[in-house]
Write a structure and sequence with these properties.
It is a single chain. This protein has helices at residues 25-34, 46-55, 57-63, 69-84, 89-96, 103-117, 122-126, 135-147, 150-206, 213-247, 250-262, 266-287, 292-300, 306-320, 325-330, 337-349, 352-408, and strands spanning 3-9, 15-21, 38-44. The chain is mainly α. Strands 2-1-3 form a 3-stranded antiparallel β-sheet. A hairpin with a 5-residue loop joins strand 1 (3-9) and strand 2 (15-21). The termini are far apart.
Length: 409
């Protein structure tokens, strides 16, 4: 069904812009008037947008605003509530479309509704937008459709998304202050070295005397930063571009992820975060009836680490041959020993889904506590480094003054 974008006046006389699906412009106009909305202009956007998406798919994916995870979570929660209240799927989607926060998400939901009305399944319609709906989302919806528990699956998906967002928000909140301190410290040092230090050290240079080594080093550093700051930025840019290019290759991404896992402190945090994501996703998929091999294939693509993904792929091959999950995962030595033990206990007791979710809770809590610990160490470390640098600047400036006093005496 075509989609129309309209400008109209609401009952309060305010101008609004939104979209509506209808068979024709006249039908869209009648729908709006029956809702108490008075259209000013209506134009069809569905076909034009589809043609442009077909021709410039890459550019549209790059520049088109992305659907926010919070927006998707809210839609999932609302859809589960409507389905639980007895709404048909099409009617529930039709109710949610005007409530979507962005025009992009409204268009996507409208096309999903149209696809369902044409006979497609909900999961099949969602799979047309892989940049919005993840593999776990689509497969859990497919499982809910086949088992007749779609509203329960959607509630579970909303719970997972809300829990992940809460964890990410706590991590961002914990890292915000150290990052702000680091940024302010870098700005202060830049101002000191490019403006304040040259105005003071110029006095010593004009005296035409042999300066102490710390002072000469400070002057050289100040001159380099003042005249070659663009080289520093260019170096960082080239390093970032080279790292990005390296990560696009399988071997490069594998090396990068292995290096990240082996870093002191950060590597342990990344391992816990990856294991928590693995356990939460695998446990949720198994709870909703997804077979183990299919679940491992999905989890492999969302863990976000090539080394861990290789370990899961190897485990999937071994499970297909009849091996246990815990034994197959232990071969790679990527997963912590306690995680392997919990999976093994779950396999033996027949409650692997419960143990995986419990393991996810444990590692999510450990991630949060680890972030707080690293943050508590990072703040004094930044202050210490700043103090050492500022102290060196002060010493480098004061040393020539002491030498001058000795010469005068």
């Amino acid at each position: 069904m075509p989609i129309f974008e309209y400008n109209a006046l609401n009952p309060k006389g305010r101008t609004i812009t939104d979209i509506i699906d209808a068979d024709s412009v006249s039908t869209a106009r009648q729908k709006l008037r029956s809702a108490g909305i008075y259209p000013i202009s209506i134009r069809e956007v569905h076909e034009k947008l589809s043609a442009r998406e077909h021709r410039f798919d890459f550019l549209l994916r790059f520049f088109m605003p992305k659907v926010k995870s919070g927006e998707l979570t809210m839609m999932t929660r609302q859809l589960a509530t409507l389905l639980g209240a007895g709404f048909p799927l099409v009617s529930a989607l039709n109710t949610l479309i005007p409530q979507a926060g962005s025009q992009t998400f409204k268009r996507i939901l409208s096309r999903i509704k149209d696809a369902i009305e044409e006979g497609a399944g909900f999961a099949a319609a969602l799979s047309q937008y892989p940049n919005v709906f993840s593999d776990i989302y689509i497969n859990m919806v497919r499982s809910g459709e086949s088992s007749g528990t779609l509203e329960l699956v959607l509630e579970r998906l909303a719970d997972i998304s809300e829990r992940q967002q809460a964890l990410n928000n706590r991590i961002r909140s914990a890292m915000a202050y150290p990052i702000l301190m680091l940024f302010v410290g870098v700005v202060v040092l830049f101002v000191l070295l490019t403006y304040l230090v040259p105005s003071i050290t110029s006095i010593f240079v004009d005296m035409d005397q042999q300066l102490p080594a710390p002072t000469r080093f400070l002057i050289a550093t100040s001159e380099f930063i003042k005249t070659g700051w663009w080289m520093i930025l260019l170096g960082f840019g080239m390093a970032f571009a080279g790292l990005h290019r390296l990560k696009r290759t399988d071997a490069g991404r594998r090396w990068y992820d292995r290096t990240a896992l082996s870093l002191p402190g950060f590597g342990a945090l990344l391992t816990k975060l990856t294991v928590a994501r693995f356990a939460r996703t695998l446990g949720t998929l198994l709870e909703n009836g997804v077979p183990m091999l299919s679940a491992l294939e999905i989890v492999k693509n969302i863990v976000g680490n090539k080394v861990v993904a290789d370990a899961i792929a190897y485990a999937a091959d071994e499970v297909e041959k009849g091996s246990g999950v815990a034994r197959a995962l232990s071969v790679s030595k990527v997963f912590p020993h306690i995680a392997i033990q919990m999976i093994q206990v779950g396999e033996q007791s027949g409650e692997i889904e419960t143990l995986l979710n419990k393991m996810a809770d444990i590692y999510e809590n450990e991630v949060e506590s680890t972030v707080m610990s690293l943050t508590s160490l990072l703040e004094p470390a930044i202050i210490l480094v700043m103090g050492v640098v500022v102290g060196f600047i002060v010493v480098a400036i004061v040393l020539p003054i002491f030498e001058m006093n000795q010469l005068i005496r």
